[in-house]
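User: Okay, second chain of the day. Same drill as before: sequence in, structure tokens out.
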Amino acid sequence: MGEQKQIYLGDRLSQLTNKTVDGEAVRIDGERFYKISNYDGMRPFFMSIVSNSNHWMFISSTGGLTAGRKNSNYSLFPYYTDDKITESFETTGSKSIFLVTDADGKTSLWEPFSNRLKGLYTIRRNLYKNPYGNKLIFEEINEDLGVAFTYEWNSSEQYGFVRKSALKNLGSASVQIELLDGIQNILPYGVEDALQNASSNLVDAYKKCELETDTGLRIFSLSAIIVDRAEPSEALKANTVWSYGLDNPKVLLCSKQLDAFRAGFAIEQEVDIKAEKGAFLLHSTVEVPSEGTVSWSIVADVHQGPSDVAKTKAA
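Assistant: Same drill. Structure tokens below.
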């Protein structure tokens, strides 16, 4: 390639550059991983995450994914083809938005792994996968803000899919971070892949997302099983999501308030949402000390009957 022109985004010089992709073996908390540095400098690629149980997950290097148990009719996210999954990373799977306030009181909007602010910050993105193929870590380091964010996908036979998140302060002064983090486009139980692909808008109309305020469990279900017959068909099972690690976070059950959060407006907790694509988004404000880390986790499972829900609430 020839010499790069200087391109400005508003008054700021664009940080878009050609990145050198590299690979090496590393250890994280004593466990071996293979690290791909600057993986976003590559063409998007597809991966599978394995488990010792009946979990399945197919995920793109963009972050878009599909996952479930047993087969495609027990999905947590829509079961689509490779190209659609790759392109859906802004609306399906992980979503993180941070408002980072430094010691001078300046608040900056940061949306890791998104293209919405592409070129505004000097960032590095790294990808880590362990030799067994059952853990995958995405990392974005924001050198301008001095903060790094990682999220990891793995699974649990008892509890389902586990997404672990962590914010690390790389600077010499503490920072306050208002976070909105979680997963989007969560399917309710009872949506087969053929129905989702042929009638996704109809499926949206039947969706019901509820928050159990006493336990914090979120239940994603259909108001009724969608059938083409004039007969009642109750939806007696659901997909469920819960979290731990943050103190009394607000919860959003859909993505309607994301733009309000980006603009700096206060958001309201959602308890009961109907006819919207389901989401599980945690809202909290944390103080991250110098070189300190704040972490939290989200746990999701599919095909949960009344007794399964009761066990999860009691756990």
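Helices lie at 82-87, 193-198, 200-206, 258-262, 306-314.

User: Thanks, on to the next one.
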